């Protein structure tokens, strides 16, 4: 196979030599072979030294690297990549864990496959291609997922329609790629608790797997407390808190989300009057309460998806956390999160610090949380650390 060649400007090879998986367009001096979006290209230093292999795309990030060694990017190469990702999750105690059949198999750059996300929901894998490169080989990847997971997954659903670059105009349609049509959703189990997941209509791939560890941590503090779960979506935190809380209220602006949260609570606890769901704007709801809760969960959607929205996002985090810190009962606990990739851990902590200072209350950090092991962060790619969390004690 003859691959297109990308040559870098002199002195622009240092980040690649440090295994960063992105090549920015400004670092490129010449491209030979006329690659189309999604084509595999090889990257060379200005002196002709081979550096890496990856997928080509027009735009700021021109190459997303999946190998720093010369390779044949065909079926066997990607089979080993998927197998290594699976083995990592077995060793981390995620895959094959008793009482848990929902986990992430592929996490983009964290698994050396930038542009590919694969989540497991029982016997169904949900694939999202974020680049044309992986979309073009999605059927092969789907077959390999079933092969690598040795029959525990029998269907692969492609949910790339909304994640592919708009300008690529690939005409993607969400559909099953391999195995049987398993419908739109299923009941999955996480740490022994049941959740209804719909990968066709749900956000992301259907369920926020990345908060598994923080949900478990919540039960350490929720005993006997009145819990408010803001931006509750499918009620993940609510279901965990219901194990030992005095009351749990789930708030979301979407009536469909609240209906799903109610359903998940009922599946695990029946018609338990301790839980109530409210369809409301988060800021409005917080403004109207008066220290009714002694534990709050603030897990909003990404306030910023691009750097040009960073300042506005940080203002949003300051405002949200200031209201919560002001409104929570003395001795209360707040679980607060940011899932915005462009917001650094330092930025988020600073925003919460300013929010706390403006209230004048004494606030201490109990925990700093992040992504679970099945959402790994490559040490060479700190940008993939998107989830940040703080657990606060408010006097």
Key phrases:
27% helix, Rossmann fold, 395 residues, globular, six-stranded mixed β-sheet, alpha/beta, Archaeosine Trna-guanine Transglycosylase, Chain: A, domain 4, Transcription Regulator spoIIAA, 10 helices, seven-stranded mixed β-sheet, 20 strands
What would the CATH topology of the largest domain be?
Rossmann fold
Mean pLDDT value: 95
SSE succession: EHEEEEEHEEEHHEEEEHEHEHEHEHEHEE
Poorly predicted sequence stretches spanning 5 or more consecutive residues:
none
Taken together, the total number of domains comes to 3
Number of helices: 10
CATH architectural arrangement of the largest domain? 3-Layer(aba) Sandwich
Across the major sheet, the strand order is 16-15-14-17-18-20-19
Instruction: Report the end-to-end length measured between terminal Cα atoms.
Output: 65 Å
- Strand content is 25-35%
Q: Supply the helix-strand structural class.
A: alpha/beta
Overview of this structure, please?
With 395 residues, the protein is α/β, with parallel strands linked by helices. It folds into three domains: 4-67, Archaeosine Trna-guanine Transglycosylase, Chain: A, domain 4, CATH 2.30.130; 75-189, RNA methyltransferase domain (HRMD) like (Transcription Regulator spoIIAA), CATH 3.30.750; 208-394, Rossmann fold. The chain has helices at 14-17, 75-91, 132-136, 138-148, 212-221, 236-241, 255-269, 282-288, 310-327, 345-359; strands spanning 4-8, 22-24, 28-32, 40-44, 50-56, 61-67, 102-107, 116-121, 124-129, 155-158, 175-179, 185-190, 193-198, 226-230, 247-252, 275-279, 295-298, 332-338, 363-369, 388-394. The chain has a seven-stranded mixed sheet, sandwiched between helices. A six-stranded mixed sheet has the order 2-6-5-4-1-3. Helix 2 packs across helix 4. It is globular. The termini are far apart. The mean pLDDT is 95.
